[in-house]
């Protein structure tokens, strides 16, 4: 399996831990994430168009979730590791449940 992400996931790691005033954890988690998931995917117009379609047909997902799912779909990625249960509603996405 190839692990890929888009830039926003890396940003979220830094943002969340820095917001908690834990820059030390931000750096450590970021570095670990980069090791696990070295490839970053750009968000394209095709991704935002697909996200719009998802928002129209899938209830209860946020625009951010729709973008993540759209990037995944446009790159034939069907699995995501997340706590976010909204991904369970998105057809074609398999969520690895984190605990």
Helices and strands, in order, run as EHHEHHEE
**Radius of gyration from the alpha-carbon trace, in angstroms:** 14 Å
How far is the N terminus from the C terminus?
21 Å
Strand order, sheet with most strands: 1-2
Question: Number of DSSP strands?
Answer: 4
Domains (count): 2
Q: Helix coverage percent of residues?
A: 40-55%
Look at the structure and give the mean pLDDT: 88
By secondary-structure content and strand pairing, the structural class works out as alpha/beta
How would you summarize the topology of this molecule?
Layout: E1 4-6, H1 7-19, H2 23-36, E2 39-41, H3 45-57, H4 63-74, E3 79-82, E4 94-97
Parallel strand pairs: 1-2, 3-4
Helix pairs in contact: 1-2, 3-4
Explain what the structure shows:
- With 99 residues, this protein is α/β, with parallel strands linked by helices.
- It has two domains: 1-41, no CATH class; 42-81, no CATH class.
- 53% of the residues lie in helices and 14% in strands.
- It is built from four helices and four strands.
- It has helices at residues 7-19, 23-36, 45-57, 63-74, and strands at residues 4-6, 39-41, 79-82, 94-97.
- Strands 1-2 form a two-stranded parallel ribbon. Strands 3-4 form a two-stranded parallel sheet.
- The longest helix has 14 residues, at 23-36.
- The mean pLDDT is 88.
